[in-house]
Amino acid sequence: MDPIRNPFAPGAGQRPPELAGRMRELQAFEVVLERVARGRPERSLMLTGLRGVGKTVLLGELRSKAIKHGWGAGKIEARPDTELRRPLSAALHRAIRDLAVRHRAPDRVEQVLGVLKAFALRANKPDAKLRDRWQPGIDVPAAQGRADSGDIEIDLVELFTEVAELAADVGTGVALLIDEIQDLLPEDVSALCAACHELSQSGAPLVVVGAGLPHVPAVLSASKSYSERLFRYARIDRLEREDADLAVMAPIEREDAGIEPEALDALYDASGGYPYFIQAYGKAAWDAAPADPITVKDVQVAAPEAESELAVGFFGSRYERATPAEREYLLAMAELTQGRDEPAGTADVAVYLGRKPSSLSPARDSLMKKGLVYSAERGHIAFTVPHFGHYLLGRD
Which residues contact residue 310 at a Cβ distance below 8 angstroms, ignoring those fewer than 6 apart? Predict the structure, then answer.
């Protein structure tokens, strides 16, 4: 098979050639866009799931849909220990520019940009030297007395209100998309919930779409108890067999090639239906196939190559971030679950390692902060990366 024509695309956040199994989420977002544009109340949206299920790709698709509907749209990726104010300013600046094309009153656009600039400048520390002060690149004077108090919760409500009113002027809305939302600082999570709550009460046309790990609902509810009712949660999981087969067959058929049914069985067994793994194994199988169609033998020959690639780029990069104590904890989880994608009891981990539970808390908390594990339920811990336990046992 010609490697140049290989249609598969394993990569972080890279759109697969066939976005299978996500039609329900895309159609639901279409409804949100239409309802908000008509002044109907709608909740903001949170996408949750393990790594490798396509949350980032889906965020990109939702952003494209918003833009096609004439909305302003901005996207950011939250980072640990990084305040929200600066990246949020850049994202909303992009959204306002989208709206400015359709707005008939340049003065009104500049007014909102002035509020945004005032909000952004509060990212600078009061004692920062002039050469170290960040400038947001907004070519209007900063407004005064609006979104510039320094209290992120107050400022975010005021900023969202201004931007939403601008969108209402042109009969559309604004979509703010936040990836890795579990990495936001606690005060920023609180401010975001408060701002969404204020907007939902007023029916303002601004929607926040977040994406993150399975424990995002717990992160939000720990900040604001009403967040359980404030957002609509959608669990993004591995693909059903029919959709997984479509993700493989559709791009192959577009290249006027084929794949045998037994090879599809083998690809599904190897990938577990996880979109990232489907792309990795599909790419390796195409490259390994000497001729059309792809056979089960081709998949078997390609599997070690795909696994080697995943071991370096998907699993290994995360494992290397863990300290020796954290690796010991991870391996104990893998051995207790026998490499299956299921939670392990925190008490069981302590017993297995012959340690007191309290002595393992620092390692567990650090792994959670690094995004390698999450609290699946009270007293249980699970890997954020599918097949990670299997990788650890193979590595050991």
Answer: 277, 280, 391
Q: What angle do CA 204, 99, 136 make, to 5 degrees?
A: 95
Cis amide prior to 362 (ω within 30 degrees): no
Which domains does the chain show, CATH number per domain?
23-235 (3.40.50), 240-318 (1.10.8), 321-395 (1.10.10.10)
Along the chain (396 residues), what's the average pLDDT of each consecutive run of 10 residues? 91 88 93 87 92 95 94 94 93 94 87 95 78 80 93 96 93 95 95 92 92 94 86 94 97 96 97 96 96 96 94 91 96 96 95 94 94 90 95 86
pLDDT (0 to 100) of residue 133:
75
Residue 110 burial class via C-beta count within 10 angstroms: exposed 0-12, middle 13-18, buried 19 and up: middle
Task: For strands 206-212 and 231-235, give the pairing.
Answer: unpaired
State residue 266's pLDDT score: 97
